[in-house]
Write a structure and sequence with these properties.
- It is a single chain.
- With about 140 residues, the chain is of the alpha+beta class.
- It contains five helices and four strands.
- It has a four-stranded antiparallel beta sheet with strand order 2-3-1-4, covered by helices on one side.
- Strand 2 and strand 3 form a beta hairpin.
Length: about 140
């Protein structure tokens, strides 16, 4: 990939000996710059083309699941949404960019971050520690 960009830069820098020619400076230079910008745009948006699964940690209770699904339904390219309320993990599969998914959830008023292995370790630790306490079916509300 780096070789590709170096060739473009060499092409951009090379030119005819008519460096002082205003015609070359204006038209050919603009053409090469627009070509480079077009290539960079393709690479920036290439991640939206591929189907990907984005895992997120979303702070929510059961009633927030409906709001979460509504926020994500507004995005184009979402294929599937899997919600695990107990571990607060959301898996979104689709063609949308991962930052757009995160932004849509945050716009809906939910606290969210990308899922990391640290979140998974904390989830396992919390379920092992607090799951064994048991409250003898006492309702607090």
């Amino acid at each position: 990939m780096g070789h590709f960009f170096t060739n473009i830069i060499k092409t951009f820098r090379s030119g005819p000996d008519l460096v002082n020619s205003r015609l070359w400076n204006c038209s050919l230079l603009r053409q090469r710059i627009s070509y480079i910008l077009l290539i960079l745009e393709v690479f920036i948006y290439a991640s939206e083309i591929l189907l990907q699964t984005v895992e997120l940690k979303v702070e929510m209770v059961g009633i927030h699941e409906k709001r979460l699904r509504k926020c994500l339904s507004k995005l184009k390219g979402i294929e599937k949404v899997e919600v695990d309320v107990s571990s607060q993990k959301v898996a979104v599969t689709g063609y949308a960019h991962r930052n757009k998914i995160l932004k849509a959830i945050r716009r809906g008023g939910l606290k969210a971050d990308f899922w990391s292995t640290q979140n998974e370790l904390l989830s396992v630790y919390a379920s092992a520690s607090y799951g064994s306490l048991g409250f003898n079916n006492v309702n607090f509300f």
